[in-house]
Amino acid sequence: MANRDLTGILLVGGASTRFGSPKALAVLDGQTLAEVGWETLAFCDERIAVGKAADVLDLPFPVLDDGIEVRAPIAGVVAGLRAAANDVCVVLPVDMPSVTPAVLLDLASAAADVATPQTGPLPGAYRRTALPALETALADGRLSLRDAVAGLDKLVVEVDRDLLVNVNTPDELDRI
């Protein structure tokens, strides 16, 4: 059942330089990483995939162009928050296929501008109240999402590290 007050944002616009090809199209158990992430966010009443239109990814759902030339997660988070219909958004990078809906719901239940696991700013839950600080950082060329959220009301949620595996190479994908 969908959560009626939650937007899921899937970040699919990474450069994938270490991976060698678009991570969003890499296959895990018969599905692309993008499809895995999209399904993970199915509990949200609204889902938005954010990336680069120029990448022309062949995905079974639309991708919102983040509208900026730079490739950085902060660009996707800003574009997703701007487009979101809901105040609270859970943000999932395409290269974290082990993150579960339960993890994202735990992050979303935090009463803060931002809620992240102990490992960093993604995956995370972001309220629209965080948008001005993120927009300012992006406009100023400060691309570190970790630094951009440092001054916000932030809660760190302990998450099983096995669920936070980040796939940066084909070998890492094979190990999952």
Label this structure with key terms:
globular, 6 helices, 176 residues, Spore Coat Polysaccharide Biosynthesis Protein SpsA, Chain A, two-stranded antiparallel sheet
Description of the molecule:
The structure is a single chain. By secondary structure, this protein is an alpha/beta fold. It has a single domain, classed as Spore Coat Polysaccharide Biosynthesis Protein SpsA, Chain A. Helix content is 26%, strand content 24%. It is built from six helices and nine strands, in the order βββαββαβαββααβα. Helix 2 crosses helix 4. The longest helix is centred in the middle third of the chain and has 11 residues. The chain is globular, with a radius of gyration of 15 Å. The chain starts with a strand and ends with a helix. The mean pLDDT is 93.
**What is the assembly state of the chains in this entry?**
single chain
Q: Can you name the CATH architecture?
A: Alpha-Beta Complex
The end-to-end distance, rounded to whole angstroms, is: 27 Å
The fourth-level CATH homologous superfamily is: Spore Coat Polysaccharide Biosynthesis Protein SpsA, Chain A
Determine the fraction of residues in helical runs and give it as a percent range: 25-40%
Silhouette: globular
Q: How do the strands line up in the largest sheet? A: 5-4-1-6-8-7-9
CATH class placement: Alpha Beta
Number of helices: 6
Secondary-structure-based class equals alpha/beta
Provide the β-strand percentage band.
Answer: 15-25%
Number of strands: 9
Uncertain ranges: none
